[in-house]
Design brief:
This is LrgB family protein. It comes from Fluctibacter corallii. It is built from 12 helices and no strands. By secondary structure, it is mostly helical. It folds into 2 domains: about 60 residues; about 150 residues, no CATH class. The chain is globular and about 55 Å long. The chain starts with a helix and ends with a helix.
């Protein structure tokens, strides 16, 4: 029980410190709290000569809380539901195409590289937020821990490269930017959209939620039918 409390407190401390650094550095994508906090936790595991399996056991409460954290996504979805009415079918079509093309392109690249089936299935969850990706990867036969890493890297790279992409494509419409960031780069992209304007963050929030929910619902059904 003592080790459980200690590791939970250390994990919360690492995340809080990383979140403070993220805010201090004006939401720089590469410093998103998930990445430095994971590195800090690893340092503690190494210094204290602890096994990763033991750490996962001690902090199983955090994993259990992924379920209620996922349900909380209903709040921004309800809050920004008006965006669906404003954008109409064009906005929904953009989310649908983006939500399909991102994972499929990654899947095909990895498939061409000859990686194993578990990693291929895991890649299909790369563009949805972490709690949904972990649970979905487990449901379809993927690797939850790798799914979390893929989601983090996708979000960070998407947020970092977004401005270059918008400049290259001549995109100046804030709502379009928000849709792209939310669909392709989930929560990290949404934090980047918050630096554009309120319209961008609203579109990004609804894209994040709808893409995540639809992917987590459809993938297990599709994979089970294929199997």
């Amino acid at each position: 029980m003592l080790f459980t409390v200690i590791w939970l407190l250390l994990t919360v401390f690492c995340y809080s410190l990383s979140a403070a650094l993220y805010r201090k550095c004006h939401a720089t994508p590469i410093l998103h709290p998930i990445l430095p906090s994971a590195l800090l936790v690893y340092v503690f595991i190494y210094l204290l000569d602890e096994k990763v399996s033991s750490y996962l056991t001690y902090t199983s409460l955090i994993h259990w809380m992924l379920a209620p954290a996922t349900v909380v996504l209903a709040v921004p979805m309800f809050k920004h539901l008006y965006v669906v009415k404003v954008l109409g079918w064009q906005g929904l079509a953009a989310m649908l195409v983006g939500g399909i093309m991102g994972p499929i392109s990654c899947f095909l690249i990895l498939w061409g590289s000859g990686v194993d089936t578990a990693l291929l299935l895991t890649s299909l969850t790369k563009s949805i937020t972490t709690p949904l990706a972990i649970e979905t990867a487990e449901a379809i036969g993927g690797i939850p821990s790798i799914a979390a890493v893929m989601v983090i890297l996708t979000g960070i790279s998407g947020a970092m490269m977004s401005q270059w992409v918008f400049t290259l494509t001549g995109c100046s419409h804030s709502q379009s930017k928000g849709l792209a960031l939310g669909t392709a780069a989930h929560a990290v992209g949404t934090s980047r959209a918050a630096l554009i304007d309120e319209h961008a963050v609203a579109c990004s929030s609804i894209a994040l939620c709808l893409n995540g929910v639809m992917t987590s619902l459809c993938l297990p059904i599709i994979i089970s039918m294929i199997k």
